[in-house]
Design brief:
CATH superfamily of the largest domain: Alanine racemase
Number of helices: 12
Distance between the termini: 57 Å
CATH topology of the largest domain: TIM Barrel
Largest sheet: 9 strands, mixed
CATH architecture of the largest domain: Alpha-Beta Barrel
Structural class: alpha/beta
Shape: globular
Bound molecules: pyridoxal-5'-phosphate
Number of domains: 2
Radius of gyration: 23 Å
Amino acid sequence: MDHFLYRNGTLHAEDVAIPAIAEAVGTPFYVYSAATLTRHWRLFDEALSPLPHLVCFAVKSNSNLAVLRLLGSLGAGMDVVSGGEYRRALAAGVPGDRIVFSGVGKTADEMRLALTHGIRQFNVESEPELLALSAVAASMGATAPITLRVNPDVDAKTHEKISTGKSENKFGIPIAKARAVYALAASLPGIEVVGVDVHIGSQLTDLAPFAEAYAKVADLTRILRADGHDIRRLDLGGGLGIPYTRSNEVPPLPSDYGAMVKRVVGDLGCEIVIEPGRLISGNAGLLVSSVIYLKQGEGRDFLILDAAMNDLVRPAMYGAHHDIVPVVEPEPGTETAPQDVVGPVCETGDTFAKARALPALAAGALVAFRSAGAYGAVMASEYNTRPLIPEVLVQGDQFAVIRARPTFDEILSRDTIPEWL
Ligand SMILES: *Cc1c(COP(=O)(O)O)cnc(C)c1O
């Protein structure tokens, strides 16, 4: 459930009419619902109770400081994958001991940053990273709490670009090698082993691959404990999928996921960390855009919007589907016609949808892309010198711009022409 509903024929974000926001900030823009973000985070928190647990929001799915502040104030931890995201989490007021640091390519500078300001754990993905972290921590006289991210060689059965738990993917340490790398970790200065980490991919719509991976982690935990490691925390990653269309089958709910976690690893007495991103932020956001032109082509019509692939790249990058709805609710029985929904960028890939059934929309009409709160604004670029679009947060009947659209002067002033030109 989200909080984007038609009221009196107009799409609202909670109690705010979308056209009122469009009037205030101009299109295109992203809008997020505080109530939806809150609800989704709580669903996970409740799903894991009464196990000791921490639900860490995957910052890469939506890293706006206001979003992080909102979730952080509920008690959320943060899963970060760069020094930049770590800084965002801190700036949003989340203490270091609620931040976990993932990612295959952590640099020494990033390790120092996290060790200086505090970290719950580093999820270490390779032997070279383990050695580097040991050297950095030892040089600071610090101890780095770590898990090793193991690669369980499980097929997540999701899009190949967001599948991470197969042996051919770049992520993690092959689970068969884990025992040896744990032994190495235990021997290194500046390293304290606290647990095991796994993350098999994103937008999973079936619990079976999770259960298979977590069962392997449970087996490994028993072996590692027998080897003398104090495994007291399991980080089970993120990846639970969301419905991108209203019609298709509904993916498992956080409560189903939580029940599975309890069944598979609940008897180990470990603290459970999870790192959901998309399920918390995805359906908490819309991308709102205006129609620029309706262009009649040969045998197909093009709906040309003021949003483009640089604002929302998922359709171009993953062939992803987003429901697109008119902001003014069509009368029941309104005829629809297939339309290719495209942006103004000079790439054929700048196509949001092909032959999408939509009612006739005039220039200036507003449309909303659903499920745009995750991997939307964070993946945006200024390709074609199109300014990054604003982000707006709604709570009840109030809304605020949480990232303003830059001016063209600001954009141009970032470039420097050398004196010798
Ligand atoms: C991307 C990612 C997540 C979040 O994935 P979602 O599909 O958004 O839940 C969690 N953990 C790690 C390590 C990731 O790379």
